[in-house]
UniProtKB/TrEMBL annotation:
Name the record gives this protein: Cadherin-12
Organism whose genome encodes this protein: Astyanax mexicanus
Domain of life of the source: Eukaryota
Compartment(s) where it occurs, according to its Swiss-Prot or TrEMBL record: Cell junction, Adherens junction; Cell membrane
Function: Cadherins are calcium-dependent cell adhesion proteins.
Main location: other
Domain annotation Cadherin: ranges: 89-169, 170-278, 279-393, 394-542, 518-579
A cellular component term, taken from the record's GO annotations: catenin complex
Region span, Disordered: 754-778
Transmembrane domains' residue ranges: 588-609
GO BP terms, alphabetized: adherens junction organization; calcium-dependent cell-cell adhesion via plasma membrane cell adhesion molecules; cell migration; cell morphogenesis; cell-cell adhesion mediated by cadherin; cell-cell junction assembly; homophilic cell adhesion via plasma membrane adhesion molecules; morphogenesis of an epithelium
GO molecular function terms attached to this record: beta-catenin binding; cadherin binding; calcium ion binding
Keywords (A to Z) from UniProt: Calcium, Cell adhesion, Cell junction, Cell membrane, Glycoprotein, Membrane, Metal-binding, Repeat, Signal, Transmembrane, Transmembrane helix
Membrane topology qualifier: Single-pass type I membrane protein
Amino acid sequence: MLKGNCLLLFLCFLFVQSSPAPLHTLPLAQPHNRPGHDWPRSPAGMLAAGHRGGSGGFQRVKRGWVWNQFFVLEEYMGSDPQYVGKLHTDLDKGDSAVKYTLSGEGAGTIFTIDQTTGDIHALRSLDREEKPYYTLRAQAVDMDTNRPLEPESEFVIKVQDINDNEPKFLEGPYTASVPEMSPVGTYVTKVTATDADDPTYGNSARVVYSILHGQPYFSVDPKTGIIRTALPNMDREVKELYQVLIQAKDMGGQLGGLAGTTTINITLSDVNDNPPRFSKSIFHLRVPESSAVGSAVGRIKAHDLDIGKNAEVDYNIIPGDERGTFDITTNEHNQEGIIILRRPLDYETRKAYTFKVEASNAHLDSRFHSFGPFKDTATVKINILDVDEPPVFSKPSYTMNIHEDTQLGTTIGAVTAQDLDAGSSPVRYSIDWKSDLDSFFDIDPVTGTISISELLDRESIAQHNISVVATKMKQTYVIQVISAKDEDLPMSGQKFSFRSPQEGMNSKNFTIKDFGNNTAGVVTLRSGFRRRTQEIYHLPVFIEDSGLPVKNSTSTLTIRVCACNSEGALLTCNAEAIFLPVGLSTGALIAILVCIVILLVIVVLYVGVRRQKKKETLMTSKEDIRDNVIHYDDEGGGEEDTHAFDMGTLRNPKAIKENLFRRDVKPEAGSVPRPAATSQDSADIQNFITERLQEHDGDTSAPPYDSLATYAYEGEGSVAESLSSIESLNGETEEDYDYLNEWGPRFKTLAGIFGDRSESQTDVTSTASTTTTAENKH
């Protein structure tokens, strides 16, 4: 384009040089182009305009519009209007004689032009995704007359794109599925994100895909968005649903690009990669012998971890000793194996059947044959339950011959019937009264012998047809129904079997009868139980489950015989009723009570004597003060402990109250009491005590414990000499007792007495006594 413009200018220049008047060609529009981008441009057009020359005539002057696309940045957020470009014409000499006008899309509202300079500005922010370009028309006119100087011309303002839109997944969230156990790289689905930015400019719309959540199970192609498996052998039975988070980022995934995400829920579809498996290797079933042929007698099930048609199971009985007695079919709804009875059962002929059942998948997948055989086997054990059946006669009919006029009571024959059940109950016989309306015959109910009860006449009735009924007499009676509980819960339900360990040991009292429905009955084997003979019976019960391995336990059932009325209603079952009818007389009971009373009296007396002895031991005599000494098990601190026990307290009891101080705290020097000074006058007392202690220590008959001894000591004399009247002078002379006042306050009273009664003399004997505690240690 640049070459084209240059060639055009060159041609115009040559034309002007060759013409008689000079020509001026200037561009009207100066495009605001972006460097580095070759935007498509419109061809330049030539515009001719008349110009009045100096000669007064018209001269032909060529003018050219050189215009192109203008560009404006979208989402401009500046405060000033955004500059777009500039329009200019060759006729504009810069003297403000040319006015520029603008019209078209957005003129005046979105875009404005300076009439003098031709500068174009955008008045507001633009969005490329809303409108990518605007078409406008520009014209140069005379400023004064508004006369067009050149023809009107169109130009385009394109909105320049910026990265302001993130990629979006228009179809999300996605749902997809892939078969389990698929190899790595298996196609799952494809996701697509769209970016509203300009795909022809830069990387704003270049999207790159990545996986944010879902590794290491799946991967995504960064360019195409195709999701594939990234981990082999993903097992649906382990995890079925996966949630994958995919991100689409523009700018080629570079830093600063905008991103959008979507979620893909991927489900692993099932394939037949698991064989059927029985929950246990042995199934125990119980079938009554009276079950109808063609009926369902049991159910077993093999579990397949797959679903749908991959979990369909076929059951087959492996030929064995069942001899076609049973068959098995598949329940299409729950895939259980239903065991069907094909032949009649007879408990007396065969009591149990054992056979194997094979379970296999109906639809196999050849890709997984290496996983092993897709089948499993289990053993089925069927125990036939005995059903109470009527007795069977030894022959279907009996023929007996007898002469007429035979004597009444004559035995003419006998019938025999037998109970074929396991219990072999006794049989009782009777004649059906409808077959013998005239009662010609009689039958023994126990032996079955038939005798004549009426005279027979051949001429009247030559042949008699009678029917004999054989009935089982069951002596057993169900007194209690028991059941069991197991903490385990097998998939096929709880099944228990009950029996008595005493079976086969000729038990004559009670037994256990299994009803085949997880309950059993306690059955009596005889009648005539008496409380006086035996009230308590213990019956062991053996219980076994049908799990694998088989668990069992034995419990003991306690049976008490209770009192009943004639109709069988319970009267009492209290324990005290046992001891009332023991046969003791009234005298014996009284003797027992008397003995009990005597024992109680003896116990009371014994306790009283022991208490009295204990009191006398504490104090046998009020005068023996040594027994009142209280002994404490308090050990002192040894010889070095001088504060453990103060002997001075015994000598002066007042010191206990007057001189109290704590021994656990070191006392102050001023607070410690000082020992009283020993008076010289008490030396004789100390000598007296010392002599007595020496005598006591040398006494071998003294008791080996501490004792309290009391001594009376009168003293050796007094400074006042003897006051006894025996040693007083005989005579009637008056004695002066004033010296008593000089002896101190102790003799003040005595001085007062003798001072008032000077005529009489009274013998006063002064005695001094002291009491001390002698400690004897042996």
